[in-house]
Design goal:
alpha/beta; Rossmann fold
């Protein structure tokens, strides 16, 4: 059957088929599912397959199609070229397949069938035309705010203080000007925070306006955080244009093919930033190809990390080309539900964040879906401030200027750190000075405290002194010269028996600037941490 057939079978076999969903999902109004994939036994010979091996492969495909978290009786077909796709379209109906949608630039179609045998027969008879066949995985939307339940942890909401926290202050009237942010969501409703003429819509087959379901305000909430202008529903880039693409059906559900359609449409219509504040349990060739298409056009995708309290990211945030964003609370704590991964890029406010909803409402929302548009808006703000930047360069700048939180350097909980728009906007401003005690971190395996000093200025700073007080005796550290964005870490051992006896220890640090150096944000030069002894097993 030759190499061409073998390549088609490779794509068939290597598809990521979603497993049965977990019944345990933390209560959150912006929930995205955990990424789960599953394969069965070893694949057959794919270079010159026999009929028996093809039959085995079709059985695997049928089982995958019947698993949960996919569109029932739907398949995604990709063809080797335009001609193969053209040959398929006129024979689809006779083959018992209904074409729901197609993406010509990817040589891909979404089909529906009443019996798997129709799909099986089409594939086996014309296998040389195909490069891949997979199920159509679902992409989830959140529960409404009214049904939101707070996690039973000591976490503090932002309310309407979100922009001040991330340093998006002062005159922002031009932030985002000349930039289009695509919001792939439930659709964006007109609202005072968007003013007049800043919302554009694109219909990819699901309509453009949000419905009136409990979840349908989600897109409006997300868009407001990226680009709102009203004081009671502010966004980072209030001068940006919003391209609203509804990707959810009447049940509030989307799927991988629809998401891919929307990504390509957004890139084709000039969006330089795409925000995806929903997620799926698995990726696939269609999504991969759509991200490649957008990336090649210079479009940046920002996506929510997911709300499953899992050590892996939802898709498309799990794709390494996507800027994945986790959630923190007002105390800079990672929120309990926020997914983590060494691949996580950034964190931003995502707990009790005030924003817009349907019918002019103002609500507070939780989740990484709220965090992602803050980063998308920050990218737009940087592009308007410096048109020489590409969206990817702007995102990289946000990573370099983020507040180093948690363990020193990038980590799985905070990524490169917490979004700091002010530091990013002033990264080349020699007159801007901001030195900070960025974090206190207890390194339990090495039984030591780590105190991170960060130079958030637009230039190098020398002559800093860090004073640490624990107990009665202060300790001083002379901080070496720090270039812009650089960190210094002071480490002190923690005596485990002493901690166990005392029950807790308090660490206070004060960062002192050299005489004559005026710090723009002196409040972040002091930090205190209470370290409690671990509970006995």
């Amino acid at each position: 059957m030759g190499v061409a057939v073998g390549l088609g079978l490779v794509s068939l076999w290597r598809a990521n088929f979603p497993a049965t969903p977990s019944p345990d999902r933390p209560p959150s109004s912006f929930a995205e599912p955990t990424r789960r994939t599953a394969l069965t036994s070893a694949p057959p010979n794919l270079i010159d397959p026999t009929e028996a091996e093809i039959a085995t492969l079709m059985l695997v495909l049928q089982q995958a199609m019947e698993l949960g978290e996919t569109r029932h009786r739907e398949a995604l077909l990709t063809f080797k070229d335009d001609e193969a796709l053209r040959r398929f379209l006129p024979r689809a109906q006779a083959a018992g397949l209904s074409v729901v949608a197609q993406i010509n630039s990817l040589h891909a179609v979404r089909v529906r069938y009443t019996a798997f045998e129709a799909l099986r027969d089409e594939l086996t008879r014309h296998l040389t035309d195909y490069t891949g066949t997979t199920p159509n995985p679902l992409v989830s939307l959140p529960a409404p705010p009214a049904k939101q339940k707070r996690a039973a942890v000591d976490q503090v909401p932002f309310g309407n203080d979100t922009l001040a926290f991330i340093g998006a202050t002062g005159d922002r009237s031009t932030w985002g000007r000349g930039t289009t942010i695509a919001i792939l969501d439930t659709g964006v409703a007109p609202d005072a925070t968007f003013g007049y003429g800043r919302i554009r819509t694109l219909d990819i087959g699901l309509g453009s306006a949000p419905g009136d379901g409990n979840n349908d305000g989600h897109g409006t909430a997300v868009a407001a955080l990226a680009a709102g202008a009203a004081s009671d529903a502010p966004g980072v880039a209030p001068a940006a244009v919003i391209l609203s693409i509804r990707v959810t059906d009447t049940t509030g559900t989307s799927d991988l093919f629809t998401l891919a359609q929307a990504i390509i449409a957004a890139a084709d219509h000039g969006a330089k930033i795409i925000n995806i504040s929903l997620g799926g349990a698995t990726g696939g060739a269609i999504l991969d190809a759509a991200i490649t298409y957008a990336t090649n056009l210079g479009t940046l995708i920002v996506a929510a990390a997911g709300n499953d309290q899992a050590a892996q990211l939802a898709w498309p945030a799990a794709d390494p080309r996507v800027i994945s964003v986790g959630a923190i609370d007002r105390l800079e704590q990672s929120v309990l539900f926020s997914n983590s991964s060494p691949q996580l890029q950034l964190t931003a406010p995502g707990y009790g964040v005030q924003t817009a909803w349907l019918n002019g409402q103002r609500v507070t929302v939780d989740g990484t879906s709220a965090s992602a548009p803050l980063v998308a808006g920050a990218v737009a703000a940087l592009l308007s401030a410096d048109p020489r930047l590409s969206p990817r360069q702007a995102a990289d700048l946000l990573g370099r200027t983020a507040n180093d939180t948690g363990s020193p350097g990038a980590d799985a909980i905070f990524g490169h750190g917490i979004l700091n728009v002010s530091t990013a906007m002033h990264h080349a401003d020699f007159s801007y000075v901001d030195t900070a005690v960025s974090s206190h971190f207890y390194d339990a395996p090495n039984q030591q405290m780590e105190f991170v000093v960060q130079n958030r200025s637009g230039r190098a700073i020398s002559g800093l002194t860090l004073t640490l007080t624990t107990g009665a005796t202060p300790t001083q550290f002379n901080v070496p010269n720090l270039t812009a964005g650089e960190i210094f870490v002071a480490r002190v051992p923690v005596d485990k028996p002493t901690l166990a006896t005392a029950g807790q220890m308090t660490f206070t640090t004060i960062l002192t600037n050299p005489p004559g150096l005026i710090d723009q944000l002196p409040h972040n030069n002091t930090r205190s941490t209470l370290l409690k002894a671990p509970a006995p097993p």
